[in-house]
Amino acid sequence: MKVFEWPVRVYYEDTDAGGVVYHTSYIRFLERARTEWLRSLGYSQARLVDDIGLVFSVVSLEMQYLLPARLDDLLQVHCSVEMAGGASVTFGQAVHRGEQELARGKVVVACLDAATFKPRRLPASMREDFN
Description:
- This protein has helices at 23-40, 45-52, 124-130; strands at residues 4-9, 54-65, 74-84, 88-97, 100-113.
- Helices cover 25% and strands 40% of the residues.
C-alpha cells in the first residue's frame, strides 16, 4: 500500500482560542490530502466532473485524536487507499508532526454520477491507479 504525504501548516484559522488545532480542522487536512493525492495521479476533481461526469462524496468518516497540534506546526498528512471497490474507495489517513502521530482516520468516499448523484462504478483505469 503506497502512502501519499502532503504538508500542511497550521494557521490561526485552524485553531481554537488557545492555539490548539480544532477537531474539524483535521477533517479539512484529510480532504486536502485526498484531493492532492488525486491530482498527483493526474486527476483534477473539476475535470472529473466536466470530462467524465463523476464526483466523490464522503459517506463515512471515523477519527481518532491522539495528540494536539498547535499554531504554526508543520504537519504531514498521510493518505493511502485501503480498498478501491466497485463504487467506493476506503482511505486510511493520519496526521503527523515529525514522528508523532496526532490523529488518524478512516474515510469512505462514494463514486457518484455528477448529474444524478446516484452511485456509479469507479472507472476501471482509475481503480487500477488507486491500487
